[in-house]
Amino acid sequence: MDALRYDERVAVARLRALLELLPTALDRRLADAGIGSFEFTLLEALHEAELRRLRLTALAARTNATLPRLSRVVTGLERKGLVTRAACEEDGRATNAVLTDAGEAVYSEAAPLYERAVRETILDGLDGDGVQQLAGISFAILDKLDPDRRLAVSAPGGEAVDRASQNTSASRDDSECAADPAAT
């Protein structure tokens, strides 16, 4: 295997720095709302879901999280009164995360903070072509890291993909819950 060229080392070093700095920068900008960027992503997924609820496995896919990480964050949001857990009525083995009214209020307060932070931190200075290049490069890396597309990633055409909501071999085929997008 050939050693990395200088330009390759620089590209990887910049990517690693971005991955290290970006979550902290977004978290700082959301501090006034009392949540971090991953918590925002979780609240946003529940806000957009029918009945403001999702099966935990679907929520993990939508937020690109492992179930253990998701469970820890949901527990923290439960303590804040922003989310509750509820058994799935159609499948007692499944658990749903449900956005509370307090969670909806925090989401509504945080959404403009998040959008401003993303624009100022990531998108400002990129024209349409730059945004497309960022999306393409991100997808090329994600495609290698998650070839089975278990996580919600961007498809090459730019449309959001949520493997938990598709009837593919990567989907669960056990009993469906009305809160699970696969059941809708």
Protein architecture, described:
It is a single chain. The protein is mostly helical and 184 residues long. It is 53% helix and 9% strand. It contains 6 helices and 5 strands; from the N terminus they run ααβααββααββ. The strands form 2 sheets. A 3-stranded antiparallel β-sheet has the order 1-3-2. Strands 4-5 form a two-stranded antiparallel ribbon. The relative contact order is 0.14. The C terminus is likely disordered.
Please render the helix and strand layout as text.
Elements: H1 6-30, H2 37-48, E1 53-55, H3 56-62, H4 67-79, E2 83-87, E3 95-99, H5 101-123, H6 128-145, E4 153-154, E5 160-161
Antiparallel strand pairs: 1-3, 2-3, 4-5
Helix pairs in contact: 1-5, 2-5
Count of extended strands: 5
Determine the strand fraction and express it as a percent band: 5-15%
Please tell me the overall pLDDT: 84
Helices and strands, in order, run as: HHEHHEEHHEE
Summarize the amount of helix as a percent range: 40-55%
Distance between the termini: 48 Å
Low-confidence stretches: 154-184
Question: How much is the radius of gyration in Å?
Answer: 18 Å
Tell me the strand order in the biggest sheet: 1-3-2
Report the total helices. Answer: 6
Bulk shape: globular
> The biggest beta sheet, please?
3 strands, antiparallel
Going by helix content, strand content and strand pairing, the class is: mainly alpha
